Amino acid sequence: MPVLQITDEGFRLDDQPFRIISGGLHYFRVHPDLWADRLRKARLMGLNTVETYVPWNLHQPRPDEFRLDGGLDLPAFLDLAAAEGLHVLLRPGPYICAEWEGGGLPSWLLADPDILLRSQDPRYLAAVDDFFGRLLPPLRRHLSTNGGPVLAVQIENEYGAYDDDTAHLAHLAQLLRRYGVDVPLFTCDQPGDLARGSLPGFLATANFGSRSEQGLAALRAHQPAGPLMCTEFWIGWFDRWGGHHVVRDPAQAAQELDTLLATGASVNLYMFHGGTSFGFTNGANDKHTYRPTVGSYDYDSPLDEAGDPTEKYEAFRQVIAKYAPVPAEPVPAPGPKTAAAGIRLDSSAPLFANLAALGTAVVSERPLTMEQLGQDFGFVLYECALPAAGPVLLELGTVHDRAQVFVDGQPVGVLERENHERSVAFNVPREGSLLSLLVENQGRVNYGSGIHDRKGLLGRVMLDGTELTGWTSRPLPLGSLDGLAFTEDGDAQVGPTFHRGTVHLDEVADTFLHLPGWTKGNVWVNGFHLGRHWSRGPQRSLYVPGPVLRQGSNEITVLELHAACRALTVDLRDTPDLGPTEE
C-alpha cells in the first residue's frame, strides 16, 4: 500500500493527488463472519477507505487481560479491508465516544475514587500507556508504511469538546510514535472546538453534518494550509430509550454530501454501516438528565443494521460517482431473512432462586459500586435486613441507573436515574424482612464530564432518616447463563425471571427478534447476548446475525425484569421495528 502524504495543497498517495472518501464501519459492532460482506459493500458504494474506532474497554476488560481475538480480532479486520482494496483510518482513542459504554474507557479505571479521565493524571496516563503498548505493536504491519491499509491514525477524539490541555494531546501523540505508529496523525473536532482540540504540527479535521461550506471555512481559518477533511460527516443519528427513531431524508443528506465533495474536501461518512451495540455495550448521555442509548446503532446509514443497502446507499453512490470512480457492479441485493412466529419460551428460572450461579455476594457496611466489585456490565443485587415492621421511607443517595425495590421478594417500587428518583415508601411486613435492590447499569455516559460514571448505589441508604448498614453486594454481570436451573412449569413468574425456549430452523439467515407484550430485560440467542429489550421503545426488535443461528434447534433466553408476555412467546420476523420516527 502507498503512504499518505500531507502537503499544503492536500493529500497525496503514491505521489498523486488523493481524496479520502471513507465510511465508518466499527468491527466491534458487526459479527466477524460478516466483516467481509460489509467491506465489499463499502467498496461497491464507491468508498476507498473505511474508518473504525477501537474500544479499549472490550480489548482490555481487566488491567491484566488483553484480547485481540474473535470479534475483537482487529488485525483480521484490517487484513480483510486490505484484501478488498480499502484503506483504513484508525481511531484508537483511548477515548472514542461512539455512543459506546463509557466512551470506550474501561470501567476499572473508575475503581480509583478520584481519578481524572482524559487528563494528565499519572494514573490515567499509566493505564493508557499500558493499553497502547498492548494494542499497537500487533498493528504495526498493518500501517501503510509497512505495506498495510492504515493510512492515518487519530489522536484522542473530539478533545476540544472536553478540555483544552494541549500537553495531554502531545503526550498521546508521543505514545503513538513510541509504539511504532509512523503514519500521519490527526485530530478531529466540531468547528467551534478546533482551537481547543487541535495539536500544533498535526493535521486538524472537522466534524459536522450540514452547512459543509461553513464548517470547512472554519477549518481553513484555523488551519490555513493543508488538506480539508470532515472526519465525521453525520448522515444519520442515534436513538435513545423513550425517544423517537431518528432518520434523515436521503435526498437532503445526499445533497449535503455533494456540497461537501464539490469543495474538493475529503470525507468520512458517519456511519456507512452502524451495526449493533450488542449486549450491555450501549452508552448514554447526561446533559442534566441521564438518557441511555438503545442497542441498535442502525444510525439511518447507507447500510442498515442487517447490512442491507438503503435508499441512501444508491443516493450516495450517485453523488460519489461525480467525483471518483465507482465500481460498475450493481447495488447489492438485500440478504435473505429467517422468520418464525409464536416461539414459546416454556421453561423458566427465577433470578432470585439462581443467585448462587450468577454471582458471589460481598459483605460490607455500605453498598459497593460496580467498580469496587470489579464489574463492568449488568446488575448488582444489594440486600439488607430491615430493623422493624411498619410503614417506612427509603431514600437512596444516588441510583446509577435503575433500581427495582423488593421486600421479601415482593416488588414495592422502581427508582430511575433518568427521572431523578431517589425515594420510595412501602410497608415492612415484619422485623428482619429482606430488602433487595436490583440495580441495572443502563450504559455509562459516553460524552462530556459525565464519563466519570460509576454504577450501582452511590452514597448512603437511609431508612426514615437513619442509615442502613450491613449489606451484601452481589455482582450479576450475566456473562454466562450456564448455571441457571430451568423448570418447565409453563407459568409466568413474579419478579425477575429468565425464560427459555427453542425454535427449529431449516434455513439460517439474519432475522429480527420481536417481543410483543414483554416489558424490560435482556435477550440471548444460542448464548449470544443480543442486548436489551424495553417496551418504552422506540426500538422494539433486536437484530439477530445469521452466524449466531444454526440449522436445527436454536435456544432463545429472555430475562424479563417485570411482566412477561402472557403467552410467553416471541417472534422471529424478517423486518425490524426501530420505532416511530420524529414528525
UniProtKB/TrEMBL annotation:
Keywords for this protein: Glycosidase, Hydrolase
Stretches assigned to the Beta-galactosidase galactose-binding domain: 496-554
Xref: Pfam families: BetaGal_ABD_1, BetaGal_gal-bd, Glyco_hydro_35
Glycoside hydrolase 35 catalytic domain mapped to chain residues: 11-322
InterPro entries per UniProt: B-gal_1-like (IPR026283), BetaGal1-like_ABD1 (IPR048912), BetaGal_gal-bd (IPR048913), Galactose-bd-like_sf (IPR008979), GH (IPR017853), Gly_Hdrlase_35_cat (IPR031330), Glyco_hydro_35_CS (IPR019801), Glycoside_Hdrlase_35 (IPR001944)
Domain Beta-galactosidase 1-like first all-beta: 367-476
SUPFAM superfamilies attached to this UniProt entry: (Trans)glycosidases, Galactose-binding domain-like
Coiled coil, from the record: none
Protein family according to the UniProt entry: Belongs to the glycosyl hydrolase 35 family.
Protein name listed in UniProt: Beta-galactosidase
Lineage: Bacteria, Bacillati, Actinomycetota, Actinomycetes, Kitasatosporales
